[in-house]
Amino acid sequence: MYQKISWGRENKKYFLIAVFVSAVLLCFTALFFKLNLEPSCFFTLRNVETGEVYAQYRYTEGDKCSIAFVHSINKTPVTEGYILCRDRIVLDYCLYYSFGAGVATEISREQMLSYTNDGGMLISNINYEIPELIYFVGTISDHILRINGEEISLRNLCGKSSKVSFTVEQKIGLNRR
Asked: If exposure means fewest CB atoms within 10 Å of the residue's CB, which of 45, 67, 133, 136 is most exposed?
């Protein structure tokens, strides 16, 4: 009734080669998807009222960016530096040239105050986590975003008087770095 199937030496050899090649292809396929379908991090600029996305900038954990503007009351430059993490934005430093509304007048024990050659006051090691950062783009002076070696005018990108939300987001998709 049942026939015993005999595997000759040649058939076993081809079978083992086929199994080996299949295993190698499976490993390469898994590695390809692991490397190319990992979540990518994006620094996203969005209109607070409408939710419209103005721009997204890809970054890796620990990258830095800054926003520079002229203070609306004391009319001196301010630069705020941020560290971009996977799930949050961290205020790292603030450089300013005179005291005014919203500018720090005291520092904590962990923070450092130093003075720049041009008379600026630099508070570093602020380490303040911000889940969502919001800026109001000025009508008189511009806000400049510095990220990935670029300088972006928020007035040109978002428009005057725009209320802009800055968030960090992760998306899964093919990475093309």
From this structure: 136
